[in-house]
Amino acid sequence: MLRPGFARLFLTIALLLSLSIAGLVAVVLHWSENWTLDQIDREIAAEVSDLSAFYEQRRMLGLKELVEERSAWRPAIGAVYLLAYRKSGDRLGGNVPRWPAEAILDKPFTFALAGDYDDAAPAQIRARAVVLNNVFTLLVGRSLEPRMALVRDFQKLLPFLAAAIGALGLIGIFLISRMMLTRMETINATARAVESGEIKARAPGADRDDEIGDLARNVNRMLDRIEVLLDATRASTDRIAHELRTPMTRLRAHLQQAAQAVSGDAREKLEDALDETRKLSASFNALLDISRIEANAPGTATLPDVDLREIVAEVAEFYEPAAEERGIVIDVRAPEKLVVRGDRVLLQRLVANLVDNALKFSPDGGKIALGMECEGGRFLFRVSDEGPGISPDFAAVAFERFSRAPDSQQKDGFGLGLAIVHAIAQRHGFTVAFEPGDKGASLVVSGPMAG
User: From 7, 37, 239, 305, which residue has the greatest number of CB atoms within 10 Å?
Assistant: First the structure.
């Protein structure tokens, strides 16, 4: 099946080639007739010159004998001659019965010569007439039929030749275009492989000295640079985690010891400070998690198959006690099996963050719906609550880091939960977005199923 880009390219080249061939055919058709007439005129002019020179040497009697002689043996090649008096037009010799009315002196002209039989079509004669010694006129001509018949045969054959050449040209263009686009497709396949997680994949054909080879080399250099940057990002993230987690842990330990050593207001303030350090550590860990997830190339080619239905059921069971305390019902609706490629731990965190977020904003006695659907090799996982919902303005920035809805400032959190969901979804090649609704918020995760 032709891709639209290739089809447009092929059709454009085919149109240009067809127009070029059509123009060339028109030029050749016109040129072939003119060239044939020009060749006949040259041949006639040369013979007129020879006969005129012969007249200067042998005068009229010699010329008359020569004209009669040529008239007798040259009809086979369509040659015609007429020697006549200039003033009276009386014929002296030749095989033309009378002086043609179309005759023009010293210029080529065409006239019709009647055939030997009454029912024969007149022959078209190309001729030239000159004056000899201001007394005689000499006409030399050639029949156009033999050569023009060849021209007409060539003109009839030319469109078929042009069509054959055009067909061969189109086949050649098709094959060359397919070859070039096949090489381009290998570069696209490399890009898709990198997108799916194969960061070490490289475009083939970089050793070829042409434009597509240059493109492959540039893509490979870019991928080498990206790999270096990703490695540097991972190394920096690990170093930050190593350098800062230990001081944070030490700070919490000191605060815990200080809180145990005092009482009253001082103890209460130290416990508040300890709680803030726990939140700060949680926020810091969340940022590190996002960085680690984003550092991994998106895609699922290297990930195992997992049952998303089981993950959703496990998360729902985990949050069931907290929901029951507030009279909230968690309703799970799923097919018997929904297998995707993914990291089980990350997918558990994605589902948990969504359920935790829905539980946080659901009113007491409300309902949280966890629905899953499968269609056309893709799945939809929808989390809906009966909370206040979200505004379109916030939906546009909800997945950014530290993004919090205006009515959620009094609730715990740093606005990183949905950022983690978005990073995990991208890691797996999934999409995540809010779905408009009349009541509450509805968030949908969609992506390809395994197999």
Answer: 37
3-state secondary structure 312-352: HHHHHHHHHHHHHHCCCEEEEECCCCCEEECCHHHHHHHHH
Residue with tokens 């086949």: 171
> pLDDT value at position 157?
76
The domain limits of the chain are 4-149, 211-295, 305-448
> What pTM was computed for the model?
0.47
Element containing residue 111 per DSSP (H, E):
strand 109-113
Q: Judging by DSSP bridges, how do beta strands 367-375 and 329-333 pair with one another?
A: parallel
Judge contact between 92 and 84, C-beta under 8 A: yes
> Would you give the end-to-end CA distance of the chain in angstroms?
23
**pLDDT tens-place string over residues 17-50:** 777 777 777 777 777 778 888 888 999 999 999 9
Give SS3 for 121. coil
Sheet holding 378-384, edge to edge: 329-333, 367-375, 378-384, 442-448, 431-435
Distances (CA, A) of 30 to 111, 145, 211, 260, 375: 21, 17, 41, 109, 64
Task: Supply φ then ψ for residue 388, to 5 degrees.
Answer: -70, -10
Of 441, 450, 299, nearest to 361 by C-alpha is 441
Domain 211-295 has CATH 1.10.287: yes
Architecture of domain 305-448: 2-Layer Sandwich (3.30)
* Domain 4-149 class in CATH: alpha beta
Question: Is residue 9 within 8 Å of 108, Cβ to Cβ?
Answer: no
Structure tokens at 92: 């002296």
CB neighbours of residue 400 within 10 Å: 12
Cα separation, 224 vs 226, in Å, equals 5
127: Cβ–Cβ under 8 A, 6 or more apart, which residues? 44, 80, 100, 103, 108, 109, 110, 111, 139, 140, 141, 142
Bridge partner list, 382: 371, 444
| 8 A C-beta contact, residue 446 and residue 380 | yes
H/E element, 440? none
Would you say 130 and 138 are in contact if contact means Cβ atoms under 8 Å apart?
yes
Asked if residue 346 lies in contact with residue 399, where contact means CB atoms within 8 angstroms, the answer is no
Any long-range contacts for 341-344 (C-beta under 8 Å, 24+ apart)? 341/300, 341/301, 341/303, 341/304, 341/305, 341/306, 341/428, 341/448, 341/450, 342/300, 342/303, 342/304, 342/306, 342/308, 342/428, 343/303, 343/306, 343/427, 343/428, 344/304, 344/306, 344/311
